[in-house]
Design goal:
The protein is an alpha+beta fold. Helices cover 50% and strands 15% of the residues. The protein is built from 17 helices and ten strands. The strands form four sheets. The chain has a three-stranded antiparallel beta sheet with strand order 2-6-5. It has a three-stranded antiparallel beta sheet with strand order 8-10-9. It has a two-stranded antiparallel sheet with strand order 1-7. The longest helix has 43 residues. It is globular, with a radius of gyration of 24 Å. The two termini are 22 Å apart.
C-alpha cells in the first residue's frame, strides 16, 4: 500500500484536528486489528468524535478516508474488506484504567458501515460510543503519525505507550496482558518468550522509535530464568519536530495564525513560526512587512524578516545577541539539519520500498496462473510462523509484515530484478 503525503489544508472540520482523544480501553480492545483496520478505526473515530453521543450515524468521503490511512488507490476492495472486518469484530476489553482498576466490557467496533456514492457511512453502538467519548481516560492518537507505521504491532505498541509519555514508563505488564495488547494472546507460538521477543517486541520497538514522536526501551522482570513481566521506558524523540503536528495548544485559534494564513503562509509553516518565535514577535514582523511597499512575495519577505529580524530604521536598534542566543540559534540550525537528514532517509526508504513493490507486481504479472500459484505455495513454505503465513494469505505480495522476505524471495528467482 503506497504511502502518500497528506495535505491537511485539503481537509475540513474534525479531520483537520489531526489528533483524536481515544479512550484507553478502546486502544486496548483493538489489539487484534490489522494495520489498515487500526488506522481506519482511528480516522473514523476522529471524524465522528464531536457528535459521537448525539448523532446515530457519521459520514466521511471515501477517498478522503483512503487518503488519510495512506491508501492511494481507486480500487476500494481493500477498504471495503477492512470496514467489514471492523463491523464483524467483537471487541472485548479487560484492562486497567488510569487508577489501576480492572474493567471488562464487550461490543462490536462498528454497528454498521456502508459505501455509497463515494461516501462512507457508519455508526457505533450506543454503549461503545459512550465509552469512546468518555474524556476522563484517553490518549491523544495522532493520525498523521500513524501513517508512518507499516505494521499493526508497531502501531499497537505506540498507542499503548504514548499515554505514559509524561510519566516516563508504562509500569509493569504481565506477559499475558502484553500479548493481549499486541493481539497475539491464544497463540501457542507466542507463548514462547523467545518467539514473542524476536517477532513482536523487537520489531515493534524498532518501528516505534523510527516512526513516531517517542522513543521506547523495553525492560524485563524475571522469576528465576523465566521472563514474567515487561515494561517500556518512554521519552520524547529528539526528532520530535518532524512529527510535531498536534494543535492541542489551540494555535489555529490565534489571531496571528489567521493573519499568516490570509497572507498565504501554509498551515505547518504558520505553526512552526509561532512555535519558534512566539506570537508577539511574529505579529511584530507582520506589522513591519505590512508597512513596506512593493513587496512581490509576502511570504518570502516575511520569512526573511523573521529570520534576519528586520526592524524599522526609526526604532531603537536591537542589541547584539547574547552568546546564549547565538548558541541557541546554532543549535536550532543543527537540529533542523538533523531533522532534514532524517526526513530524507525516511523518504528514501519509502521510495525504495515502493520501487521494489512495483517491481514485484510486475514480476508477478508476467507469470502465468500456474506459476503464480506455485510461487505462492513456495513462498508460504518458507515462512516459519502462522502469523506471517496468515498475513501473506490476506495481503499477498503486498504483505508489509513479510516485505523483507518477499524481496529476498524474488531476488532469488530474478537475481537482477531489483538492480538499479
Amino acid at each position: 500500500m503506497p504511502d502518500t503525503q497528506l495535505n491537511m489544508d485539503q481537509l475540513s472540520g474534525a479531520l483537520r484536528r489531526e489528533t483524536v482523544k481515544k479512550n484507553v480501553a478502546a486502544i486496548h480492545i483493538s489489539g487484534k486489528l490489522s494495520l489498515l483496520q487500526r488506522k481506519l478505526s482511528n480516522v473514523l473515530l476522529m471524524n465522528a468524535y464531536d457528535a459521537l453521543t448525539t448523532a446515530q450515524t457519521h459520514t466521511i468521503d471515501a477517498r478522503t478516508l483512503a487518503m488519510m490511512v495512506g491508501y492511494n488507490s481507486n480500487d476500494f476492495d481493500t477498504l471495503r474488506a477492512s470496514l467489514r472486518a471492523l463491523a464483524e469484530t467483537v471487541a472485548e476489553w479487560d484492562m486497567l484504567d488510569e487508577q489501576g482498576r480492572q474493567e471488562w466490557g464487550v461490543s462490536s467496533l462498528l454497528s454498521f458501515a456502508k459505501l455509497k456514492g463515494g461516501v462512507c457511512e457508519y455508526s457505533y453502538s450506543p454503549a461503545l460510543a459512550q465509552k469512546l467519548y468518555d474524556p476522563k481516560i484517553y490518549a491523544l492518537i495522532n493520525v498523521q503519525i500513524q501513517r508512518n507505521f507499516s505494521s499493526g504491532h508497531g502501531l499497537a505498541l505506540y498507542e499503548n505507550c504514548y499515554r505514559f509519555v509524561r510519566t516516563g514508563s508504562t509500569g509493569w505488564w504481565p506477559l499475558d496482558v502484553f500479548r493481549k495488547l499486541m493481539g497475539v494472546d491464544g497463540s501457542d507460538y507466542y507463548a514462547s518468550f523467545k518467539h514473542l521477543n524476536a517477532k513482536i517486541i523487537k520489531p515493534a520497538v524498532t518501528e516505534v522509535n523510527k516512526s513516531s514522536d517517542i522513543l521506547i526501551e523495553p525492560e524485563f522482570q524475571k522469576k528465576g530464568r523465566t521472563v514474567t513481566d515487561i515494561r517500556f521506558l518512554i521519552k520524547g524523540n529528539p526528532q520530535k519536530a518532524m512529527f510535531e503536528i498536534d494543535d492541542s495548544d489551540g494555535v489555529r485559534n490565534l489571531t496571528v495564525y489567521k493573519t499568516l494564513r490570509k497572507q498565504g503562509v501554509s498551515d505547518r509553516l504558520a505553526r512552526q513560526w509561532i512555535a519558534e518565535h512566539g506570537e508577539d514577535y511574529v505579529q511584530k514582523k507582520l506589522d513591519y512587512v505590512k508597512g513596506q511597499g512593493g513587496v512581490k512575495s509576502t511570504v518570502g519577505y516575511l520569512s526573511a524578516a523573521l529570520r534576519d529580524d528586520y526592524e524599522d530604521p526609526k526604532e531603537i536598534p536591537t542589541p547584539e545577541p547574547s552568546p546564549e542566543a547565538i548558541e541557541a540559534a546554532r543549535k536550532r540550525v543543527a537540529e533542523k539539519a538533523s531533522e532534514e537528514k532524517a526526513y530524507a532517509v525516511r523518504t528514501a526508504e519509502r521510495q525504495a520500498r515502493a520501487r521494489k513493490l512495483a517491481i514485484v507486481e510486475d514480476l508477478v504479472s508476467r507469470r502465468n496462473p500456474t506459476q503464480r500459484d506455485a510461487d505462492k505455495r513456495l513462498f508460504l513454505a518458507g515462512l516459519d510462523n502462522d502469523l506471517d503465513r496468515e498475513h501473506f494469505r490476506s495481503h499477498g505480495w503486498r504483505s508489509g509484515l513479510n516485505a523483507t522476505a518477499i524481496f529476498e524471495f524474488w531476488e532469488d528467482l530474478e537475481p537482477e530484478a531489483f538492480a538499479v
